[in-house]
DNA sequence: TACTTTTGTTCCAACGTTTGAACAAATATA
DNA sequence: TATATTTGTTCAAACGTTGGAACAAAAGTA
């Protein structure tokens, strides 16, 4: 039917013979308005099916109550779970969440930022695309004085709040585990080292090897986009090496799955010939054959902290000083692909 | 730095010694404004780093240029791919997209709708939660005269635009294929029949069996939530049947994967003992062992049509009459799990 | 009773933009 | 030259809400 005319605060005022501003105050529970009036206003509002005009409020107050989120792709258990939690926390506080995907593309990411700024979001929570190196667009956000919180894929140079797991330590946990399972030579299929998290994982890989007196070998470390196809391609190279490694640590479950496929196709026994550990604890890692050991990234916790950090920033914007770098512990979920004993 | 003061149309006007309204018209390329003035305005706007206040425009024009999208969960290849396309089409037309997840919960879905209405979106594109039976909240959208487009999970009673694949025919294609592979008795693990798409798939399953003169057996059809765990649970029941079926058609790849696991755990050979077909063509269906045959749902096309339908509705709102029910053909991707010959 | 305080409301300007009407100046038409 | 048209701009109101100042009435205090 389309009950065309939306009712406004003015309509309510007319019904009751009071002014719009009294109605506004009544609705906002202003202390100076009598209980009687408040009750009446609420009643009439109900009757008229009144819905506050959010846009008018936003204009008047100078804030939209919208928070923008940028993720590389929604199609990932980690990100969709982070978002779910962000929504949960922010909705409770009256914020709405605009989710955008960058598809790992710098260009798309820039467009997303522009769109979010255009929409006048009150803040942005983002995880950077793999491709992103230039920080100009992110700096634009900062310059506008809009709270920016990064998670997972951060960037130290930006100097903003950050939430993520301890990537360096994650690598240690993984390598410790593989060594314990008897692996002598461990390869690493990692992300590009210009991204902070992958750089840290690579560093952790190095240092953990050193710690265990394992030699570092140049041809056992690879950087890629970590898609399933990348895992396949690199694994093909690895099995053609004169002497193969006996353990592989992959920075993504998708790439790990690709690697696993190739190994199966070549009758390499996992974990006996080569033990495999992935990253991200995607649902499929538990159900592939063999199930893939993987690092759990604390998505819920990350989402919660990111949202709460935003709320903190918005509530006292003056306190520009103390940045929050929140680094959580990761957890290795050991499954068949790396369990030899 | 936080360059605090945002510049407005008024600032530009002051610099040039003209009125704000002239500036507004210049920026909107009004025919009555001289080229000279337009040029000057653009120049000054550039210098002052002017960004139009979207909220003010929205208030004045009575539209927010925001479109809400509700999906059951982002963590699915189908949905994230639909969204990507919706974004692509709508962004081009100056709309921003707010994505919300219902997590298959009716309650969350209602909250999402409330939030979107509160934000004054110009339209809503949604796929209903499995749980949803009551349509009160969706009717609220309609009553407000806000364009509503459903996709995939629709509902005939709502009488709104819809885009989805031909679920009824999909079942025919699947059953035709399984029969051709020599299956004599085919089970179906489906969604709940109160959801239109699942009802249609079940109907298709029935009719296709009849077409091939296959008997229908009561204990070969199951309704569930189609999660991986549901697939497992039901498969366990199936393998305990006095005589097992030799083909299984599952309405979701997740549930199909669960079923596959159970079969492997029980040394049932797939496809030789039991042939398996899933639904949704999730990435993992191609990489599980064996790879799962699956129905491809045309996510890109669906997203595109949904977005374009919204644009059509918004451009001529009077034309309330002719609903658009767009039913696309699905395609069966045949993989190892059902290929006997 | 006269004065201060409190209570409940109205008044009014503001947020930044848009848009039709009004108007003056320039140009075209008779 | 007088009149009609076109061009480029200004004016003013509007979108719906908010919130401080102003104000009258009621209540409290001396």
Radius of gyration of chain A: 26 Å
Number of helices of chain A: 13
* CATH level 4 superfamily of the largest domain in chain A: Response regulator
Total beta strand runs of chain A: 12
What CATH architecture of the largest domain in chain A do you see? 3-Layer(aba) Sandwich
Largest sheet of chain A: 6 strands, parallel
Helix content of chain A: 40-55%
What's the domain count of chain A? 3
Query: In CATH's first tier, which class of the largest domain in chain A applies?
Result: Alpha Beta
Protein name (chains A, B): LacI family transcriptional regulator
Keywords (chains A, B): DNA-binding, Transcription, Transcription regulation
Pfam family, one (chains A, B): Peripla_BP_3
InterPro entries (chains A, B): HTH_LacI, LacI/GalR-like_sensor, Lambda_DNA-bd_dom_sf, Peripla_BP_I
